[in-house]
Amino acid sequence: MQDNEVSSFTTRTVHGGDQRSVADNAIFPAIVTSSSFAKRGLDDVPDYAYGRVGNPTRHAYESCLAELEGGSGAIACASGMAATNAVLELLPKDSHILVMAGVYGGTFRLIEDYRGRTAGLEASYVDLNDIAALREQLRDNTRLIWIESPTNPLLELVDLERVARFARDHGLLTCIDNTFCSPWNQRPIEFGIDLVMHSASKYIGGHSDLIGGIVVAADTERLGELRSVAMATGSIQGPFDCYLALRGLKTLSLRMERQAANAETLARFLAEHPRVEAVFYPGLESHPQHELCRRQMRSGGAVVSMKLKAPREAFDTFLGKLKLFVLADSLGGVESMINHSYSMSHGSLNHEQKAAQGISENLFRLSVGIEDIEDLIAELDRALRAL
Ligand SMILES: *Cc1c(COP(=O)(O)O)cnc(C)c1O
């Protein structure tokens, strides 16, 4: 939407961006599959020329998501990892970056196994809330701070405003992986962050039927650089998947409202349960960063982690009682999911690395869906009592 008359986030999830110019009067933008677009003459410069460079369906999706994040524009990529890679392509070779400790495993792998070897990238993993540590790690070639908040699976938060201020003072770029929040829950550009990256495979798509990624730039200069990267490296999102992501956005607010409300109710239930040792949820007053959560997020979100009072041998019994909570790697869909961090999301780390990150064997992450909360509570209660 080009005017400022509509301020409501939810209204913008339905009408946001530039969706009407795509196909004559269609309520929903068409899936335009054409790889090439005809010129009317040698001097004609059409909006679209070639599908890698620009595509109307992709544009509709990018412009909507950019508006929801309050940015100047976005580039939609083939996956969350492709989006992260596009951001790292902005850096000159032999750069150094500061990365939130406990960052998403795929991001760690990309930096350590590939960007280091191919681009000389070096990373220091630090708790970004420790500004003294940040200052200590600064080098002449430090270029970027890579933020993730909340972290997976222990849901620690980073104070976005503070980190953005530190970055500005030292001439560093900031990028946040905002996947766990979606723009419904957290809009980092409002706190001074330069770039916002999402795995659209999670809340943006919202239906576990899509792999995608997207980067939103706060200012037009960065947006131009990102567009060049997307065009040059070619890891763009195809029109069918852009259609799915845009369709997902239409119900983002409804899904997130329901999922976050379910998650909070569930977190309170689990916190009182005799078989639960600890609950991690920033929306609970007992979370050490609850005040920060209230400042920079709309709610505690839809992910809840918990440690069970039970040995490894009992987990199969527990999981065997779950029908609604699907044992799966992903999160963010309308269906509830459960993940065993120790053997699944963090399975490639050794025991010491996991221990250093607080990943114990009795830790489970719940991605709470839109089901009836009474059913979710009843099922978890049954499974916990079987322990
Ligand atoms: C899933 C995920 C990614 C990677 O996204 P893909 O779409 O799987 O490539 C990055 N960051 C976070 C926090 C994720 O959950």
What report would you give on this structure?
The chain starts with 8 loop residues before the first helix and ends with a helix. The chain has a 7-stranded mixed β-sheet, with helices on both faces. It has a 5-stranded mixed β-sheet with strand order 8-9-12-11-10, with helices on one face. The longest helix is centred in the C-terminal third of the chain and has 20 residues, at 252-271. Helices cover 37% and strands 15% of the residues. The chain folds into 2 domains: 9-248, Type I PLP-dependent aspartate aminotransferase-like (Major domain) (Aspartate Aminotransferase, domain 2), CATH 3.40.640; 253-386, Aspartate Aminotransferase, domain 1, CATH 3.90.1150. The protein has 14 helices and 12 strands. The mean pLDDT is 95. 46% of the residues are buried. α4 links the parallel β2 and β3. The protein is α/β, with parallel strands linked by helices and 387 residues long. α1 (9-15) packs antiparallel against α2. The protein is globular and about 75 Å long. Residues 79-81, 104, 106, 152, 177, 179-180, 199, 201-202, 211, 213 line the site of pyridoxal-5'-phosphate.
